[in-house]
Amino acid sequence: LPSGERADNYEKLIAGFREAYIAFNRDKGVSETAIMLARARDLYSSLSADRELLHIVARNLEAEPLTDVDASGQLQVLIHSHLEMEDLVKKLGALLQMYQEISPLVGASTREYPLRLAKVESGSLWASVFGHPAVIALMTALITSAVNYLHRRYTQEGKIASIPKQVEAFESVLGLHAKLKDQGIDAAPMNDDLARAAVKLAGNWNTLLQSEPAVTVNGQYFSLGLELQKRLLEERRMKQLEDQRPSEEE
What we know:
Elements: H1 3-27, H2 30-62, E1 73-79, H3 85-105, E2 116-121, E3 125-131, H4 133-157, H5 167-174, H6 176-182, H7 191-209, E4 214-217, E5 220-223, H8 226-249
Helix pairs in contact: 1-2, 2-3, 3-4, 3-7
């Protein structure tokens, strides 16, 4: 969110918590307690998201400056749907964790080649990052495969899918062994490492891409049809409401 809108959002969150806290102190009933906890959760989530984003930016500023951009790989990801700050931070974190998981698989050091944020814009997420060229190339290929898989499943089955965490299913969907081979890397000795990485990577891709009807990766646009986009976004909105309902009713 732009800074003015973010400030307005905090003003509403704080006012909502203050009103709920006053009501709780007055009556201390079950309903007042539930409402106060829900307002506190909303405020805490926003504060946590902003703090995590500041940590990401700080780590990026503290890293050594890029001395040779041309020798680095670049990845640009644009998530076209509107994102709340909490979701934006989660997706940025998923990109960073993805880089950290893939780097050892190609023999790259994240200390020598940290992932660097070149640009981040909020509202919709537009992230431009630099890193080890082999890692960035593999990330790009895998993200592209993941988007295609998720969109294909939704088009064919009409339901929100996820990247599987089981190694065999993960491999059949994304072809990690083949993509490592394309990088000149023999994946056979790394089966244990790949099994461990598959679980974390699947979670990262689901965080970044699940329920996203339109994504651009390095200028390549992936999209569901307009009607499917509307339906997917509505299903995502309903799921978010369902996820919030239990804690608000407690």
